[in-house]
Queue: 3 jobs
Job 1
Amino acid sequence: MAARTLARTRTDLSDFLIRHRAKLTPADVGLPTTGGRRTPGLRREEVAQLAGVGLTWYTWFEQGRDVQVSESFLLKVAKALRLDDAECSRLFLLAHRRPPPPEAYQWPSVSPLIQQMLDDLAARPAYVLNLRWDVIAWNAAADDLFAFSGREQADRNVMRMVFADPDMRYRLPAWQDDALRLLAQFRADLATAPDDPTMLALIDELKKLSPVFRRGFEEPDMDSYARGIGAVLSPDGSRRDFAHETLIVDEHRHLRMIVYFESPLDGPVKTSAQDG
C-alpha cells in the first residue's frame, strides 16, 4: 500500500509541475521566445534557468524520480512557476515536505495607500523592508539616494548593498560603523525566523562575499543597532547625514518603513569607507 501511495504521489507531482509549466509563456517571465514549440508553456530548461537549479536535477524531480530536494530548491521552483499560496503548499506536500510560511516564497508588495504615504514624504527618503531586508517599495527621494529602480530585484537588499556592492560601500563615509549597526539589527531580526531558508541563503552568500559580514555575524560585539544608514555621499560627492524612524507597515508580514531625517553636519567629508 505504501509503495502504491508513493508512486501515486510521484505521478501527482509530475502532473502538477507539467501543468503549471504549461500555464506560463516565455514572455510571462521575461524570457525571449525562440523558434516553434511543440507544446505550450515553458520548457524544462527554462524553468531550471529561472529557478537557478540544475537542469538534470529539475528533470529528475519533475519525472518523479526518487531524488531528495531541499526546501530551498522547492522555494526556487515555486517562484519560477509563480505559484500562489495554495499551489506552493501543494508542491511541498507532494514533495513530502512541510509547507513554509507565505513570506518565505512570496515577493511582498505594499498597498496603494502605503505607496501613497511613501510618495507624500517627498522631502524624506523612505522605503519598506521585509524580514530579509529586501527593499520592496520606496519613494523618489530614496531612489535618488540609493538608485533602487536601477537595481535588479535580488540586489535591492540592504545587507547585500552594504556588504557586497563596492560602489555603495564607497558612498558610505562611515561604512564600518553603519555596517556593523545594521548587521546587529539584522541578526536580531533573524530571531523571528531562525530557520527561514531565504534568510539563511542570504547569510551564507554574504559570509562568502564579505569577511566583515562573516566576522560580525559569527562574533557579534555591538551595543548599538540601526535599520537605516547614517551617512551617504550624494552623487555630487556631498555628505548627507541622517537619523531614522521605523514604522510598522504590516506586523504579520514583517514589513517596516524606514524614514530618513536629514541632519546638517559641518566638517570635512571622510571618504575612506574602504579602510574598514
Job 2
Amino acid sequence: MIWLESKPIIEKIKPYLAGQVHAFKEAQRRAPRLAIVLVGDNERSKKFIALKQAFAREVGVETKLFHYEAGIGGNDLRARLTPIVHSPANDAVIIRLPLPPPIDPRTIFGAVTRKKDVDGLAPDSVGDFIEGKALYIPPVAEAVEMLLAHYDITLKGKRVVVAGQGRLVGRPVALRILQLGVSPCLTDRDDPFLEEKLKNADVVITGVGEDPRFITGDMLKDGVVVIDVAGDVDLDSVAQRAAFLTPQIGGIGPLTVMLLIRNTIRAAMFQRR
C-alpha cells in the first residue's frame, strides 16, 4: 500500500510561491492579503484557519481574521462583508463553512466578487466553474487532481465514487472529475445504496465530514484508491484493502491549503492589473 502524501508536491511549488510574493512586495510595497471570515466558534474551523495562516506566513502572505458571533443574522453578516470584500487591502476573501443556521450560505457567498473568491464558492464563481471558465479551480478539487497526477493514478475507465455532496468538497470534486472526462458517482451518507457503490468503486474520494471513520475496510474492495478529505475513513482497516490511501496527516489537507494561498497570490496580481 502506498501513502498518498502531498509533501513532495508542496516542497516543489512552495519556493515558487515565495518568489512570487517577494516580487509582489518589491513592486507593490506590501504583501498579498487574505481576509478570513469566521462565524461562531467551531473548533474544526479554527484548526483549519490556523493551518492556512501558518502556510501563508511561510510564503509571506498576510492574513486578517474577521470573527463574528454565531448569533449574527444573515443580513448583518452580509452588511459587514461588503467593506471587507471591497477594501483594496484585501486581495482575497474566504468565508469558513459551516455557517450557523439560519444563515443562507448562498446569500453570504454572493457578496464575494469573482476576483476575490479564491475558494470558488460564490454563485458567480460556481457558474463559471461549471462552464469551464473559472478564475480559480476550487482548491480541494485541484488538490485531488494534482495528487492523482503526481502518483500517476488515472481515472479513465475507473469507477469513481465521490462520497459527500457538500459545496466545499463533494460537488466541486465531482464536477472537476467530470471535466476531466470521467463520470463520477456522487453519493452521500444517507444513500441506501452507499455500501454497494463503495464496494464496486476503484477510486473513492470522501468529503462527508459528519461521521468520523465511518468508511471501513470491509466496505471496500482490494486495490482501491482512497482519498479521504474529511476524516471519513478508518485508516487501519482501509489500509489493509487499499492500493493507495491518503494519510491522516500530510494528505489532501496541506495541498488544499497551499492551493488556496496560491489563489490568493493570483488574486493579488489580478487586483493590480
Job 3
Amino acid sequence: MAGTAITRITGSRDLYDPAHRGISASVNFLTCHDGFTLYDLYSYNMKHNEKNGWGNTDGDNNGNSWNCGAEGATDDPEIEGLRRRMVKNAFATLMCSRGPAMFFAGDEFCNTQFGNNNSYCQDNITSWLDWNRLEEYKEIHDFFRYMIRLRKDNAILRKTTKPAACKLPEISIHNGFPWNGGTDNNSRLIGIMYAGRDENDIRDDIVFYCMNAYWETLIMQLPELPMGMQWKVCVNTFLPYKDGKNVEEQTEFYYKKSLKVPPRTVIILTAEES
C-alpha cells in the first residue's frame, strides 16, 4: 500500500513514462462528480442513496471511505477535528503529486452530499453547493489556497526542472530515515523529497513531503541538506490552519534533523538558506 502510494504521488511513472508521455499524462484527483465529496469520504462508511429511488442499489459500493468514528453528521469535536485533518491530508498530498491536479468543486469548503455518491438525479440541496459552509469551514478553504500557492511557488512539485546544483536527485524516498526506499505491509510513515532548480534557474528548489498514516506519533529522520541550507516546516496538518501562522514553532522539530509526525498527519518542509 505505501509503495503504491509513493508511486502514484511521484507521477505514476510505471504507467506514464515522462520521457515519452510528458508531464501531463497522469491526472491526479481524489474525488469527482461520481462518488463521495471529499468531506463525505471521511464522514460515511457506506453510501446513502435511498432518496434516489432505487433502494440504495445505485452508485458505487467501493468508495474506500472511512467515517472517522461516526456515520454522518456528528457533534463530537474529536471526530470533526479528525475529518478536517483528513481533508487537509488529502489535499496536501494532491498538491505534492506530480501531474495535473483536479479537485471537486465544493471540496475546498467541505461541501456534503449527505453520503449520496450518485446525486445526478437530485436537483436540490443534495447536489447543490452550500455556500454557507464556506464560513463554517473557512480554515479548510484558506488551507486549500495556501497549498495551491505552495505548489505554484515550488515548480519541482509539478514537473521536472533543471537538475539541482547541489546534486540531490530529482526524486528520492526516505521512509522514516534518510534514503530508505523500502516498504512492506507494515509501512506507516513515508517520505518523499523533490529537488531541482527553480523556474528562474536562480536557486535550488527542494521540498520534503512526509505522511504518517498510523494512529500514533512516529519519528521522521530527515535527509541532510547541503551546507548553507536548512529545513523549514511550512505545513503541519495536525495544527489548525491560519494564514501567516508559524507552524514550525508548534512542531516538535529537533536540531533541524528529525521531527515528530503526529497521528494521521502530513508535514511538508522546504529548504532555505541557513
